[in-house]
Amino acid sequence: MSVTKPKGFRASGVTAGFKDSGKSDLALVVNDGPSHAAACVFTSNRCKANPVLWSEEVIKDGEVAAIILNSGGANCYTGAPGFQLTHATAEALATELSISSGDVLVCSTGLIGPLFSADKMLAAVPNVVAALSTDGADAAATAIMTTDTVSKQATYDGPGWSIGAMAKGAGMLAPALATMLIVITTDVDLAPAQLDEALRVACATSFNRLDSDGCQSTNDTVALLASGAAQISPDLAEFTDALSSVCVDIALQLMQDAEGASHDLYITTTHAASEADALEVSRSVARSNLFKCAVFGNDPNWGRVLAAAGTTTAAFEPHQLDVAINGIWVCKDGQGAADPESVDMTPRKCEILIDLKAGDAEVTVWSNDLTHDYVHENSAYST
Amino acid sequence: MSVTKPKGFRASGVTAGFKDSGKSDLALVVNDGPSHAAACVFTSNRCKANPVLWSEEVIKDGEVAAIILNSGGANCYTGAPGFQLTHATAEALATELSISSGDVLVCSTGLIGPLFSADKMLAAVPNVVAALSTDGADAAATAIMTTDTVSKQATYDGPGWSIGAMAKGAGMLAPALATMLIVITTDVDLAPAQLDEALRVACATSFNRLDSDGCQSTNDTVALLASGAAQISPDLAEFTDALSSVCVDIALQLMQDAEGASHDLYITTTHAASEADALEVSRSVARSNLFKCAVFGNDPNWGRVLAAAGTTTAAFEPHQLDVAINGIWVCKDGQGAADPESVDMTPRKCEILIDLKAGDAEVTVWSNDLTHDYVHENSAYST
């Protein structure tokens, strides 16, 4: 009941046969209106997958009637046949739904390079339409999973309106965005430009603060579809706050299911001169393989935190820095303080706090440790 | 016979007791002149270890008579006692050698945070001086090892003059520099400014193109000491070429002994619009954990190469890129070409070639794969 919680939406998930496992791999979310207002945020990677290239055109008029998503293949670097398949998929779906293909977003996720079967895709389109239902959210959320071990869904209840979201993403998690496909539905009545503004704010403080492994995807898409079926136009700030809370909820679910991770890292930089400084320092720590290996080994290695901070341009005096790990100040004024042995590193949640003593800004970046299982999963993924 | 190969140098290595293993951990290289011209390059990390802060002052007059180096502790983020120990070490050595402490470089390497014993250091200074010998190069090179499995040394024979080098470094290898201590000796007679110019050129095309794990150290120091004992002043361009070849030799030795690595990556970006573009693309691939895990799994995953290239600002058309792995063009014009199964990934040496089709510049960055052993070694290092 995530993406079908708001009024005006149906969803489905079926098996097209792209995955060797035989698990479901094709999802559809349809906006029955009356409004078809929509907004999207796409990966900033310059090497974009074919469905991203297609969807960037579709969203230009701010109208989306349906979004179709497949797992089992990214359709990226597949050349002209890949773009043709994206186009043909949108056309086939448009015909089935009696809508314009120019209102159909397409998303794909999986391995880059190989192209999945066009025949299987086109044969499955009528099936995924036939399966549409107002309680199809779980089926849709399951069909977009790749290495995810659980489906990710979230909802929000506003006064007379609601938001629902589903997501997939477990590896290649980094700004911007975070290797994921996310569909967010709502029954509010807002214009495309308003949805776009709200979505950009929400992404900046949620998905763009998630950096699991520093790798940026070719297929990332966050789509926000508004049906207007609630016949309510909430205050934009109120809606943006609600949307942000849904996006943070989903971002934390992505972190908690990141490939091979044994710790969730909450890396907070506080008393920074600016939000940009705080973000740079937290992200730098989130990118330190050495620190992330140390966390995997339950080692509160604050020296590696400082070494990462030292690579940034943020305003701070190196010898005034404080670092706390799980609430213990292991470094004060640039020197060892509390005994690292006193830090309990066994919980999955690990909180790192870096005090720059340079201002009032604070940012938390979410990440994961670097583990044997991460290496294993990503060394064997395509074989 | 590395750092003592050039005329005018003595070296030694002894056990001061910083390492639990009891292995040697204190090295000394003395320049007996007649010239004491020198140049240094230090880490660009803003969080610098105490010996780096000291040595930055020492090198300002371009004169160095001795360099003392310890393993078993980085003396970084150790506060005032740490800087005082660096100072006291230089003073003690200066007294023993009847030189000025202002001509003594100090280097330390090991864990950040804890401070090694001042008593052990000061007790060992007379011993390391007593052990000085014109064939002490091996002993010195051995005493600076940390997680290195082999000592790194290199030499160059010029007409009537020579260069010798020793290095340590196995983890935290990234620009700039590459988590290492490197001492280079030569008996040429060149002025400090000439040595500085040559050293910066040599570092730019050697150590700064090594990026094993993206992590930047707090202690990196490359010191070049010239005794003038050969009484020859070679052409600066000729000397720079010779110095560069020694630095590349050492950089490749560092790569080949990187912690836990099972592949050495030679990531070449060719036909770039500029050297900066080529460097950015190669370095971006060198920073992709996902690609580096794939190589560990003997998977020629070119999609991850393109995903990394797509995060750069280099001039190229995403859909015109070619990628070869170990000589096989697995991607041509942005699409899969040769069967990845035909790529032999079993050799330790793995060559990645990215053709941007945008110009004439070419750069190779050296890196390693991301392995179980890397995670293991860096999760257990401080415990």
Automatic annotation (TrEMBL), chains A, B:
GO cellular component, one term: cytoplasm
Protein's cellular compartments: Cytoplasm
One Pfam family cited in the UniProt record for this chain: ArgJ
Record-listed E.C. numbers: 2.3.1.35, 2.3.1.1
Residues forming the catalytic site: 179
Keywords: Acyltransferase, Amino-acid biosynthesis, Arginine biosynthesis, Autocatalytic cleavage, Cytoplasm, Multifunctional enzyme, Transferase
Pathway: Amino-acid biosynthesis; L-arginine biosynthesis; L-ornithine and N-acetyl-L-glutamate from L-glutamate and N(2)-acetyl-L-ornithine (cyclic): step 1/1; Amino-acid biosynthesis; L-arginine biosynthesis; N(2)-acetyl-L-ornithine from L-glutamate: step 1/4
Gene Ontology molecular function terms on file: L-glutamate N-acetyltransferase activity; L-glutamate N-acetyltransferase activity, acting on acetyl-L-ornithine as donor
InterPro entries in the cross-refs: Arg_biosynth_ArgJ, ArgJ-like_dom_sf, ArgJ_beta_C
Site feature (Cleavage) residues: 178-179
CDD domains documented for this protein: OAT
Signal peptide residue numbers: none
Keyword Acyltransferase: yes
Annotated function: Catalyzes two activities which are involved in the cyclic version of arginine biosynthesis: the synthesis of N-acetylglutamate from glutamate and acetyl-CoA as the acetyl donor, and of ornithine by transacetylation between N(2)-acetylornithine and glutamate.
Family: Belongs to the ArgJ family.
Subunit structure: Heterotetramer of two alpha and two beta chains.
Protein name: Arginine biosynthesis bifunctional protein ArgJ
Native species: Antricoccus suffuscus
Gene this protein is translated from: argJ
